[in-house]
């Protein structure tokens, strides 16, 4: 992959950038990561500042948009790539591991069997059906699987976690990332408006939001504005737990994948952190510090991934956007019907 990324590459420029960004850094480049790390740090500062001014825009969404904007302006030079590679792979995996400390298993289990059923059905159906629809639309299997993962689990972080297991190329990852961020951001406005129009109760809104909206931060934004923050985020974290088994099963099921580990190492770390949090041994001061730390790390990583998005290609592609809309409508519709029928 490395030789293709640096010599004789004939694919789209955005795919070439993302291909280089996602390579594992070598020791020979350790002195050249600073420009890319500095760019990522500036993007994180921007993302946090925008989020402070406009809480409905999560740092992750702002960071992805900043990366895509930098790429569109032609500002992703060769000097930035080693640092972007570092944040897009290693920093991202650390963030996903730490994400496990944000999940309280007792709180998730306390959601009740009705909510658990809604989450499992909405997530499972969307994850299975979306790749099938993608094939009908003529999209690659990698694009379908990555869009399915991002929509059904937890947005951009899920796409990044699934990328190595999906068997897709870098254009697949960039398309899925852009699509999920686009529809997830639109949900921040659409979900509260639709909930008010439909006359949903606070409990129904919390379950619908947590079971259907892509990013944790987007769920938090809707929940905070609607007064259902804790319940909505708890339901959402019930979906996040499903990231580990879905990534592990996809890695083992992919043809030609050889003999992958039972779970990727960072996914095992994620599960270990969930288990550690469940023991009750983690001090409250630590669990309180984890969310802002993971937000910063995730924003840096997603900025790096965002530099691989070709906005013009995404908007003109049509089929990936259509698939994202279908998947978003599917999970939103199933979760809404379940909330109305099962949640008082």
UniProtKB/TrEMBL annotation:
Any matching Pfam family: Cons_hypoth698
- Top-level division of the source organism's lineage: Bacteria
Transmembrane stretches, by residue range? 33-54, 111-133, 145-162, 174-198, 205-222, 228-250, 262-282, 288-309, 321-343
Alphabetically sorted, this entry's keywords are: Cell membrane, Membrane, Transmembrane, Transmembrane helix
Is-annotated flag, keyword Aminoacyl-tRNA synthetase? no
Membrane topology is:
Multi-pass membrane protein
* Localization per record: Cell membrane
Q: Name one GO cellular component term.
A: plasma membrane
Q: Which family does it belong to?
A: Belongs to the UPF0324 family.
In its UniProt entry, what is this protein called?
Answer: Sulfate exporter family transporter
Supply the source organism for this entry.
Nonomuraea glycinis
Specify the taxonomic lineage: Bacteria, Bacillati, Actinomycetota, Actinomycetes, Streptosporangiales
